[in-house]
């Protein structure tokens, strides 16, 4: 009995030793990035897998993609959409003529079927890259306008752009409703009507190249920018610009604009059977004269809507978040992706926003899966290593027991 009880005691001791060895090994692996790669002990629990900032077509697309893979994803939306003023979206196949709010509402409703997704209508004020001291795993901490904090392993920014319009009375109110920047979005509804081009002289030829298949009566309102310097700038891009404008019968009016007055609203004067909208605007000039036009194409700059890209110190190119230096909509900050208008991959429209959101959704999911796979593999290695260590120790103890009974 004695030996048996001795052995029992010994095995109890060994079990404790085994447990202690195992615990200390796990701890070492979790706290040290030198023994194992940082992803090997993936024990960090964040509130969500992914934070998406932006509820336009880009953010919604990323949310959908991640939701369908059961990624715990939260999308924040401050309700400031670039195409908010427009009457309907166009050139978005399957949704041609759909009002943007209707499009977003349907997208939200469909995505809500995926239980791992959540939408919060609030502004994210700040996002901080963090590092979990115990595991050496990076993550992000976002704070909303009510001071609520959310954590996630990845961040996708779909925060969009704003159009920076000049301070011409009447222009801002009409932007998106007869005065627009994108002929693919709104040009067809005003086809064959008298068109105006708004912007500086160097932009005129570009606008004509985009629109001459829709309009034959075009006046470029250059608002005092027809200067020798700008002529040189335009000639550098289009050496025969004057002949080109003559060929398309484009006239230039360089008077200073004081205001743009809406005379008729195409919302109320439209033919839905033929997709035609009949806006009328009156351009007022400094000398008191006026010119009427039915629609305008504009050439004005854009800016980032959100300060988050600057706060996160993301690399920019021409005012857009640089995602062209890396694949999959990645920015220069590990774990942060940029989609839709706010990035610089060369396009600002709804299909691009959806494409880039989808692309980021795929890359983020697969990247997290890789991290999780590494963890699973190294956990298995860790287990084997522990078993080996414990096995060696047991062997030593067993030898000691046998020695005692010799
Ligand atoms: C007048 C007009 C008409 C247009 N018409 C068309 C058209 O017919 N067809 C077409 O293809 N394209 C059209 N466009 C272009 C189109 O609107 C954009 O390309 C598209 O909206 C880009 O989508 P996005 O998701 O990147 O950005 P947005 O749609 O602008 O969405 C940005 C999102 O980010 C959110 N956000 C920003 N900062 C924060 C923050 N800190 N916290 C929380 N949320 C935040 C905003 O609230 C918003 O939800 C039009 C543009 C304009 C200006």
TrEMBL record:
Signal peptide extent: 1-19
Membership in a protein family: Belongs to the class-II pyridine nucleotide-disulfide oxidoreductase family.
Pfam families documented for this protein: Pyr_redox_2
Biological processes annotated in GO: cellular response to toxic substance
Organism field: Aspergillus carbonarius (strain ITEM 5010)
Domain FAD/NAD(P)-binding: 48-199
Gene3D superfamilies: FAD/NAD(P)-binding domain (3.50.50.60)
Source taxon at top rank: Eukaryota
Protein name listed in UniProt: FAD/NAD(P)-binding domain-containing protein
Keywords, ordered alphabetically: Flavoprotein, Oxidoreductase, Signal
Entry's Gene Ontology molecular function annotations: oxidoreductase activity
InterPro entries per UniProt: FAD/NAD-bd_sf, FAD/NAD-binding_dom, Ferredoxin-NADP_redctase_2
């Amino acid at each position: 009995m004695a030996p048996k009880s001795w052995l029992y005691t010994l095995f109890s001791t060994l079990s404790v030793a085994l447990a202690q060895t195992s615990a200390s090994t796990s701890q070492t692996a979790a706290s040290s990035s030198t023994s194992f790669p940082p992803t090997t002990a993936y024990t960090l629990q964040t509130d969500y897998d992914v934070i998406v900032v932006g509820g336009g077509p880009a953010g919604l697309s990323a949310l959908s993609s991640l939701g369908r893979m059961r990624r715990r994803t939260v999308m924040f939306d401050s309700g400031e959409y670039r195409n908010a003023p427009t009457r309907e979206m166009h050139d978005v196949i399957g949704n041609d003529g759909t009002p943007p709010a209707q499009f977003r509402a349907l997208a939200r409703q469909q995505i809500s079927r995926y239980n791992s997704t959540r939408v919060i209508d609030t502004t994210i004020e700040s996002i901080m890259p963090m590092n979990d001291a115990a595991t050496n795993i990076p993550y992000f901490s976002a704070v909303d306008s009510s001071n609520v904090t959310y954590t996630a392993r990845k961040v996708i920014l779909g925060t969009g752009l704003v159009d920076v319009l000049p301070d011409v009375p009447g222009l801002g109110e009409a932007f998106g409703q007869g005065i627009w920047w994108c002929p693919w979005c709104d040009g067809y509804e005003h086809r064959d009507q008298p068109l105006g081009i708004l912007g500086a002289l160097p932009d005129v030829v570009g606008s004509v190249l985009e629109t001459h298949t829709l309009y034959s009566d075009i006046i470029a309102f250059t608002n005092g920018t027809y200067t020798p310097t700008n002529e040189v700038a335009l000639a550098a891009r289009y050496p025969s610009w004057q002949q080109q404008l003559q060929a398309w019968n484009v006239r230039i009016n360089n008077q200073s604009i004081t205001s743009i007055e809406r005379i008729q609203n195409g919302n109320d004067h439209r033919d839905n059977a033929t997709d035609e909208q009949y806006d009328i605007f009156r351009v007022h000039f400094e000398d008191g004269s006026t010119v009427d036009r039915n629609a305008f194409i504009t050439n004005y700059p854009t800016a980032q809507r959100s300060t988050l890209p600057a706060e996160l110190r993301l690399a920019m190119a021409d005012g857009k978040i640089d995602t062209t230096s890396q694949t999959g909509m990645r920015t220069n900050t590990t774990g942060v992706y940029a989609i839709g208008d706010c990035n610089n991959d060369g396009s600002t429209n709804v299909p691009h926003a959806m494409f880039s959101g989808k692309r980021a959704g795929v890359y983020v999911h697969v990247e997290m899966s890789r991290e999780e796979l590494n963890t699973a593999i190294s956990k298995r290695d860790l287990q084997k290593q522990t078993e080996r260590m414990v096995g060696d120790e047991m062997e030593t103890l067993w030898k000691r027991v046998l020695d005692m009974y010799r």
